Amino acid sequence: MKNFPADKINNLVLMGHGGSGKTAFAEAVLYSAKVIDRMGRAADGNTVMDFDPEEIRRQVSLNTSTASCAWNDNKLNLIDTPGDFDFVGEVMQGVQVADAGLILVSAKDGAAVGTDKAVKLCRRKQVPFAFMISRMDEANANFDKALASLKESYGQAVVPFALPILQDGQMTGVISVMNGQAYSLDRKTGTASPADMPAELADEVESLREALNEAVAETDEELMEKYFSGEPFSDEELDQGIRAAILSGSLNPVFVGSSTANWAIAFTVDQLIRCLPTAAETKAVEAQSSGETVALQADPNGPLAAFVFKTIADPFVGRISLFKVCSGTLKANSTVYNPLKEKDERVGSVFSMVGKKQNQVDQVSAGDIGAVTKLMVTATNDTLCDRSKVLTLPQIEFPVPCLTMAIVPKVKGEEDKIMAGLHKLKDEDPVFGVVNDPETRQLVVSGLGEQQIDVLRSKLKIKFNVEATLEEPRVPYRETIRKKVKVQGRHKKQTGGHGQYGDVWIEFEPGEEEGLVFEEKIFGGSVPKSFHPAVEKGLQEAIGRGILAGYPVVNLKATLVDGSYHDVDSSEMAFKIAARLAYKAGLPQASPVLLEPISTVEIHIPDDFLGDIMGDLNKRRGRIMGINPDDDGQVVQAEAPTSEMAKYATDLKSMTQGRGWYTINFARYEQAPQVVADKVIADARARMEEDEE
Length: 693
Hints:
The structure is a single chain. This protein has 693 residues and is of the alpha+beta class. 44% of the residues are buried. It is elongated, with a radius of gyration of 33 Å. α6 crosses α7 and α6 (199-217) crosses α8. The protein contains 16 helices and 36 strands. α12 links the parallel β31 and β32 (556-564).
């Protein structure tokens, strides 16, 4: 494929609710552009965009993928994104490098939760977008109902640019509102041919054209004067005005068709290229250079700045880095600089991607998307530039993982293999975390939802041949005491030669600091100073395991008040053991209690779900700390026991139909209610007995 200038490149991100037809749309476009010989289907596992083995198995998109094709005189870079909310990080990668978005909407369902999330993300990132009412070939498809749902949700900016021609409920043609021209569809090939305007739609088309002219007039004073004087716009003025209105967000076109049947897809792409902004028309990218902000235009002769928005871990090729060149030209067989890693990278071959297929090119110019393999240190969110002009591009702000699960190998001893595999998978998916928790002795993985974590588990098996199961993570409880006691710890052992002798009296009481506070109030040298550190060390080792359920002890003050020693038999080891004996004897007498971790939770929900959320938090022993409005509804601030929030990501998705999201952070420890403490203690003791066996 030849090199295209930025004003001939369209980077289009495909978004929408799961099952709305994003991957099928890409397939139909690539078929219409003669990039592929036949259209694949997700159900058959043979689409261009869903090439990951896990995507083929589950028959849904899980990753962002790209495909390039020439369309008349333009280059179209399609960026296909998942519809499942667990993979919103993938969608954010696509939006970051797109010049425009196409949000697909099922003609059966209309505006859905995924539609809403896509619209909000585009608006937040200031990416202009259009809609396509898809799946018109299916039973119960209803264009008018779907369009009404879009207008109700997103206002008067939603304007149809295409209307379906229906016959006996079946789509047989399409009308271009911009041209005022009807087209009949060949239902086998999907091609559109000029046809007569159906009389029953003429008035509606005229009304929509008038609304379009009004939107165009509002973009420019000269056009406004021309509109009010009754003069028609030229085709060039109409196109410029429409692009300006879409770019400003005051116009969201709606198209119609069926991706799987390839109805009106070529027609839609022609219209999209005509009215959506190119890479040259989008706003300048603000990069950082030596502490200053630099505005970068899509200029192939400008300083090099390429943003790596996605990494693919290919089992045969290795790491594939997908990037967009925001300025300059990235050439094959060159050396570039990664300012975040402060290292040079050697670029070998450069590619244009069509799903997993790599088409070698000699360079990728400003505004275009490409790929490079085998970079040594570069990861997602990194910038590639020249050493002579160091530039850093804005990074994607990924959501914070909120659901944590323990991942357990089916074969004992394979924890290291799981950890190594997950670290490699982190190249592909930055929106998860993995930690080996030394306290609970579990490997815990955090993500946005159960499906994301389950996909990681499946990929471990496919790519790294290690099988694992998922379970709820153990909660890191704590223990403390509520009253003051004074106890003796005496260690005396006589063997051949030197014996062992250590004797201490220690006062244990609740402390104000988190860990152990050790003091000594010895009079008359009953325990020599040289043994005091040994007493403290013995206690420090002992508090790692409480006497109720084996959890660490906190907020403990220990004061060495008396004791005795032997000139020959006393040693540091003897006094360490004596301190531990005092600990074991004293804590059961000091009213020990179990402490549970409390988390602060910030839940973002639409207004309609406020009552359900508050009721659910009460069931989880939560406390509402405040409710504040935001742009999308309400933000509920609450505190709740961490143990009650284990599956909250899944439950919140269910309660809010996927519209709610939350953040969670550790706050402090509080005494657990007795009924909770009894259960935790019983479970812990049962687990200790199992471990001993």
